Amino acid sequence: MDTYLGIDLAWSDRNDSGVAALREGDEGLEVVGLGLARGIDAVLAWIDGQLETSHAAHGRVIVMVDAPLIVANEHGGRPCERLVAKSFGSAHAAPYPANRRLLGGYRGDGRLAGEALGQALAHRGFEWPPRALRATFGERARIVHECYPHPAHVRLFELTRTFRYKKKRGRSWDDVRGEFTRYVSALRVLCEPQLHWTRELDERFAVSTLKGVAYKRAEDQLDALCCAYIAALMPRHGRLEAFGDPSSGLIVVPAPPSPA
Length: 260
Description:
By secondary structure, this protein is an alpha/beta fold. It has one domain. The protein contains 9 helices and 7 strands; from the N terminus they run βββααβαααβααααββ. The strands form 2 sheets. It has a 5-stranded mixed β-sheet with strand order 3-2-1-4-5. A two-stranded antiparallel sheet has the order 6-7. Strand 2 and strand 3 (28-38) form a beta hairpin. The longest helix is centred in the last third of the chain and has 21 residues, at 212-232.
């Protein structure tokens, strides 16, 4: 049985990362882990807990991380970001440019958070650095890729503009919470594969009165859940598309819907 992990990775160890785990169940993809972890060590401890289950020990483990994993450039942006921006910029789903000078300042050791996570996962049997996206892999493969929720939303939910659930200047709390609720509603009705949505998830993502840190914690967990869902598309042939190349960075997004 495959295990699908999603990590909404914070660039700094001072901030929380969202973490989520899915497995196939009788009623669709079941959420078997969901929460927050502060710092790379805490994220790894959470992943280790998932890897220790009998399902992960005998099946494939696929991890999708919302954070730059391979960043070879000192300045500017990566080719994968430019390609994603070209395809999704009109939907306001372009990624921020990533470079070593920018990201290296978030950690005391100068390493990028995505690199630190990937190198630690390599010691746990994961392919590192990530290879090109492929459709076939071994029964006990351990794979990690970079993803980005915003273009995923555009593809998964057939949006013309991605959800505006991030709190930014000029956006009221009522507006961002309304967009967050739209995001939750869209995830609830996903099919092929379907998420097994529970009352506990409804309660966890009830944000009608949340602000500040409390809202950000819910947001991080919801993005991690979306990343785990993207991971669950990998064994389903033709459901993912990669922008970029392994040497300079790959961003994985859901593929366009098949023609009717």
